[in-house]
Structures are given as C-alpha cells and as structure tokens.
C-alpha cells in the first residue's frame, strides 16, 4: 500500500501495525476526519504524528440502476470503443492508415465490446439484472495522535468549529488502554454498559437466577473449596443367559420338523394299507 508524499512521490509503508496514540477526535464520516487533519496541516502541525482509524467496517454495495440488454450492449460498446480507438490510433500513425484506420479500429472495438457484453449478460441467466458499486465504509472514524503531541493537537482543533466531532476531547485516553475498574463499576451502576462476562439486564428474561459477578483480585476465599467427589459409574447389567441359545432353538425346530414329517409318512402308509 502506498500514498503520495509531499514531493509527489510514493511513500512505502512497512508491515501493518496496530494504531497508536490518543484519540483527539471522533467523527461520523471520513470527510469530517479528513477536514480535521487538513486543518492541523494548515496550522503547521506535524501531521506525521496523526492517524485516521475507521471502526466497525462494513462492505456496502450501492445499486445504481437496472441492467438490461440495451444497457449491457451500450456499456460494452463504450469500453470496446476506447480499446478500438487505441488500436486505430496505432494503425493510423505507424501503418499509414490515416483517418480510415482510426475509424475502422473504433468501429471494430465497439462491435466486439458490444458482442462480449451481451454474451456475458446472457450467461447470467437473469440472476443479476442490476448494476452496483461496492465500497468499504466505517461506522466511525477516530483521529489519533501521539501522546507527546496530543495536547497541542487538541489546542489546534479547538479553534476549528466542531473540531472534535462527536466529542473525543481532552478526556480521551490512550488508544487501546484498559479502563479503570472503579470507573467501569461506576458507569455500570449508573446505567452504563455491563462489565465483560456479565449478562445483559435489558435482554429478554433478564439476568439468570443466582448470577454473581466474578470476585475482584485478592477478595476470594482464603481456603479453596474441596473438590467434588467423583461419581461412581454403575456397572452394566449382565445379560440373562439362562434361556436356550440360538443353536438350541435351531435344533428344536429341526427335531419338530422331522417329527412332523415322520407323522405325515405314517399317516400316508396307514391310508394306503386300508
């Protein structure tokens, strides 16, 4: 990633690192944050100590209109015409084609661009009949400054109307610094955000029954509670093996079948003798 330096060249940045400094302004849009930094630069403040940080990043796709075959063909013809114009210009200059070569390249480029655009739109199968533009936006922008220069930056921004934006003024602490536990408890008691790990009282159902906040360091019991007794697992019940086995059942079925066959033969023999 690069940006234009003061002499028009490109400044190459190193590896990405977390932002550092104190918040001297909080703004709703990037234009407001840019206005504040521009004012610092106009007042000859060393803006190399300033950083703009965007929070709550979101990908926004803005729909610009409906896409039809006509619009797809027109956009393809326009993009192809630029490419054809470049080819025709090269032919007219280096190939002695003159104006005819220029117009030929323009028409051929527009025709091929229109054809490719119509084919691409047809392949979508009507699943995307609109045009859009995507961009990454932030819900809030912070202007950070190095701690040794933050007070001077606040003094300069105080001369700008609405220079602090949403009010990140002299009370703002260092970026990423942990909050004071006492102030956190005070804000929670006054209706502020609950401490980390605590249930939200405003949620449906409220806090769970019997919930207590975690103890503060040094206020826990002197003797740790005894470990819970291990639960004894009950042995599985032994299967009942007193009944006949599968082999015995099969043998009984065979014996009953042979006896039935023998009785049937005896009945046939007695019937033939009579």
Secondary-structure blueprint:
Elements: E1 2-4, E2 10-12, E3 22-27, H1 30-42, E4 50-66, H2 69-94, H3 98-123, E5 130-145, H4 147-157, H5 181-189, H6 246-273
Antiparallel strand pairs: 1-2, 3-5, 4-5
Instruction: Indicate the proportion of strand residues.
Output: 15-25%
Overall pLDDT score: 76
Q: What is the string of SSEs from the N terminus onward?
A: EEEHEHHEHHH
Q: How large is the radius of gyration?
A: 42 Å
Fraction in helix = 40-55%
Number of helices: 6
Give the low-pLDDT segments: 169-173, 177-199, 202-208
- Spatially, the strands of the biggest sheet line up as 3-5-4
Could you give the distance between the termini? 115 Å
General shape: flat
- How many extended strands? 5
Q: Please summarize the sheet with the most strands.
A: 3 strands, antiparallel
Helix/strand-derived category reads alpha+beta
Summarize the structure.
This protein is of the alpha+beta class. The protein is 41% helix and 16% strand.
What does this structure look like?
This protein is an alpha+beta fold and 274 residues long. It has helices spanning 30-42, 69-94, 98-123, 147-157, 181-189, 246-273, and strands at residues 2-4, 10-12, 22-27, 50-66, 130-145. The strands form two sheets. The protein has a three-stranded antiparallel beta sheet. A hairpin with a 5-residue loop joins strand 1 (2-4) and strand 2. It is flat. 14% of the residues are buried. Mean pLDDT is 76; it is low at 169-173, 177-199 and 202-208.
